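Project standup — Tuesday

K.O.: blocked on the structure for the chain from last sprint. Re-posting the sequence here as requested.
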Amino acid sequence: MFGGKSFTLDPDISPDLQSRYVAILGNPKGFTSEPVGKIAWQWHNDKDGVPRTEGLEMNALYVVMLYGVEIPPEGIDGQPHTTEFLDMIEGYNNLDRSHQQQLEQMSMYHTPPVFSKQPSEVVLPKKVHPIVSTHRVTVKKGLYLGFHTAIPVGMEDKPETAKLFWQELFQTACTRTPVYSHVWHPGDILFWDNSQVMHRGTPYDASKYKRIALRLGVVDNSCL
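H.V.: unblocked you, prediction finished:
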């Protein structure tokens, strides 16, 4: 099953770049201050964006493909344009055992990041996912943190506490786990498992450079 919504063809974009379930990221229509997918410059799991489906487990395998069609020569930092990845299996393994045991008893509410722009109020997100999940294929435990708007169950009425909890947990995992930075070249295709891998794109100047990336997500719906 393809993960995410289907897309309507855009007459202003080449049909060669478009397909029903493929998202076009970047600025395919030309220079702009608001490239598509800018929200993904923050650490996240794409699986938060999968629609709720009756019988589909939150821990279902979700693989994403990203194909780089046109790549900006540099990011806003002057370095090559990259996407960064964080292995949350290693993130879990690098925690103290007592911390692991605490997190194994906890879950968080999640909502797609694009819908998480409510100022000064807590909106109860749409899904609940354990913080520590067991991969359905590898049977390895890993952290699932989603996006920084995730709210631990029991902290729904404590937005600042929830935000601090997420930030501290992510920083602990990030500082103890190596980050892989992929330097993009036109024609590169990356695959990763959103079940236990976080990622973020690095910012680039979309008013100066063009970026076109095609994204396809596939969900294992064998449990349905």
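K.O.: great, moving the ticket to review. The first strand starts at residue 23 and ends at 26. The first helix runs from residue 88 to 93.
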